[in-house]
Amino acid sequence: MSWIPRHPTDVVATLSPLRRRPGDPTQLVDDAGAVWRTTLMSDGAATLRVTRRGDALRCDAWGPGAREAVASAPDLAGGADDPTGFDPITPLVTEAHRRNPGLRMPRTGRVFEALVPAVLEQRVISAQAHASWRHLLRRFGAVAPGPTPRRMRVVPSPEQWARIPSWEWHRAGVDPARSRTIVVAARYADRLEEAAAMAPDDALARLRHVPGIGEWTAAEIAQRAFGDPDALSVGDYHLSNYVGHAMFGRDMTDDEMLEALEPWRGHRQRVVRLLGAAGVPGKPRRAPRAAFVDHRSR
Fold first, then answer.
1. Which pTM does this prediction carry?
2. Where is the HhH-GPD domain (predicted)?
């Protein structure tokens, strides 16, 4: 399937938030710049390859869920993202926008797929969460269909996540609180998937109804599953200080960050992504990095 998007689209930059760092077994960028991604659709597993050919984008797919995955590819690549009303306002954001005209907000439409890695990232450093994600996918994910550039995995179904025994979570370095949130959410997976078709506030409320999913986790899910350009990860360990230093050269609390970003309401997450994509520096690192917490020893 090929299509010409409504707005300029940088496929690699647009889909980068869906990749949990290098080594993620569900997404990679090959040497030709094509993005490979696996997903579990209602019809089954699928592997997608999204490439750019001039002004057009092309999606090829393999596996029982291929037809459904191809149909969702335009939204995945930001086709549902309409930046028409976005006003950069300040010179800093204007320059970041100018340098990244093809940055769109991706929309997977797969809520539970976004939920699991977001929960794994609660209260731990990113490297630890990503290591847990890789371990669990390699242990319980199915081998991806198609001629993938390297061995890739497809996420387990909610039922499979719910059946992972406690000792396997332990081996993956996931504490009982986070594993319990995923297992409980799996029981309501069908109801959670319905949130993809809801209005933003209703969708966030549906997500937060699950014990263990708060404002930060719901926003992380909304950014990826819904393509929400305004979903801001309030409560993030680094975000408020990043925004504060990138835009004003000082530390900020969450409340101060929300006040500072208020002029961009409706596009606050877009602003954060543009600043990051433009390489705008945040707070200088002076303190040592947060420690890796080994839950396996507890």
1. 0.93
2. 120-298
